[in-house]
Amino acid sequence: MASGGRLALVIGNSNYADVPLINPVNDATDMANKLSALGFEVIKQTNVDRQGMRMAIRDFGNRLKDVDVGLFYYAGHGVQIKGVNYLVPLRADINSADEVQDESIEASSVLRKMETAGNKVNIVI
């Protein structure tokens, strides 16, 4: 993508085994469509596990280096433990708070990718 572009990573997780959610995949699809209409190149991932989320965030971070505006949107389960925010992927096997960091994605990992990219503007929703 040429410099000056816009790139978005949109993740929506609904199909959790124990506590499924109704709206995240629909919300992610709507957001991806709107962002595309606004000129963003969109990486959309739905119902992804930890590895899928990690790979999408890595790809997003690498591609951010070539654009001016980056946007990250997440819909799904999240949790905060000791002031740290986590995004909960599908198939996370969490039985207690001390397992969250092993089974989830730390939200700040997205922020680190954005900071490393050095592009002009980043937005997190």
Characterization of the model:
Helix 1 links the parallel strand 1 (6-12) and strand 2 (40-46). The strands form two sheets. Strands 2-1-3-7 form a four-stranded parallel sheet, with helices on both faces. A three-stranded antiparallel sheet has the order 4-5-6. The chain is globular. 34% of the residues lie in helices and 28% in strands. The model has no long low-confidence stretch (mean pLDDT 94). Helix 2 (50-64) packs parallel to helix 4 (108-117). The chain is α/β, with parallel strands linked by helices. The protein has helices at 24-37, 50-64, 100-103, 108-117, and strands at residues 6-12, 40-46, 69-75, 78-81, 84-87, 105-106, 121-124.
Give a short synopsis of this structure.
This protein is of the alpha/beta class. The protein contains four helices and seven strands. Strands 2-1-3-7 form a four-stranded parallel beta sheet, sandwiched between helices. A three-stranded antiparallel beta sheet has the order 4-5-6.
